[in-house]
Amino acid sequence: MRVLLDYTFGTSPGKAIRNLDELAKHFEPYGIAGTTVINDEWERYQPFNPENFVFTPHSLDLTATIPKKGGLFPGGIHSGQIWSKQTFQPGRTGHSAYAFDVRMRIPAGRGMWPAFWLYAKSGMPGMNDGSEIDHPEFFNMSTQNELDWTGYSHGPGVGDSIYSITQKGIWHPRTNFSADYHNYQTLWMQDAVYKYVDGKLVDARRFKWTSRGAAQFGADLAVGSSNPNMPGLKPTSEKQFPSALSIEYIRVLAAD
Predict the structure, then answer these.
(1) Where are the domains of the chain?
(2) Distance between CA atoms of 100 and 116, rounded to whole angstroms?
(3) How confident is the model at residue 36 (pLDDT cuts 50, 70, 90)?
(4) Per CATH, the architecture of 2-255 is what?
(5) For 57-86, how does the pLDDT look when each residue is reduced to its tens digit (9 = 90+)?
(6) Do the beta carbons of residue 137 and residue 202 sit within 8 Å?
């Protein structure tokens, strides 16, 4: 495979994306839901701004904050997300397979819900049937926290497991993923998805992308949810903020 896109973030010399203007050339700040709140989530995603999209020398920090008149309630938190303007689908958008390599550090703390995922670009009716590839997705709630990796795939095209070291979709390697940066790598083929953490294969499954639209990739820091299927996914103190999902780079590789 060859490197197709290489997005390095930070203000240090040599970084590809060093400020909000450069970020806006390649990414959008709104994903599938636009400015609305979904999944009973507590955050509202914001347009590109220096509070929720913070550049450090070596990273882009998608940062959750408590705005004026905000607080620990649905819609009371501001946060950031990025979605690629370019779309991808093996066998359809010019390449037979894609690999996505994101190096990031997740935040700790109850209620944090960081993720990197692929989903069909919104805006046209019928373009999206729920096909989705998540890797990683961390739920910091009553039964899981920053030590518990998940990376589910969704939609009509989800097939049988090829290989997995998870238990019911959760991998618990006794690693605190919030303590340092890790590489989360997804190999997406026309009939299967392979998911690696720091080069270790964690899960592989038969998968067909059945949405009419090709996929954007996105990274976001959701915070909190009142959904009963995610008990305890709620921040407990305003002292948890600001909290950040720190991204060093996102690389996209492709096979012709």
Answers:
(1) 2-255
(2) 10
(3) low
(4) Sandwich (2.60)
(5) 999 999 999 999 999 999 999 999 999 999
(6) no
